[in-house]
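REVIEWER CHECKLIST
Item 1: Sequence provided? yes
Item 2: Single chain? yes
Item 3: Sequence as submitted:
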Amino acid sequence: MDGHFVLPTVFTSAMRDFNPHNREAVLAAVQADGYALDFASATMKADQDIVRAAVKRHSTAFFYAAPELKENRAFVIELVSETGAALEHAAEALKEDR
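Item 4: Structure as written out by the authors:
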């Protein structure tokens, strides 16, 4: 291996017209590959619809969400009810909340 990472075709095609500040572009990208959230602007990482779509595609994409969403109890419960793996990246205080 030469140390270069090759992005999956679905990700690169969605990223062709990617603008990290454009809601529609970010939504399309995260719907194709949840990990596109990593490349979104801070505003988009704080958008519940964007993060929800990213986590629906890849539960661990929640890692890239804005801290305020990781601390939002209602939002975290919603995500965890869909995919328990999202809890891994929730705020520590919520992880301890039983």
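Item 5: Key structural point noted by reviewer: Residues 1-9 have pLDDT under 50 and may be disordered.
Item 6: Recommendation: ____
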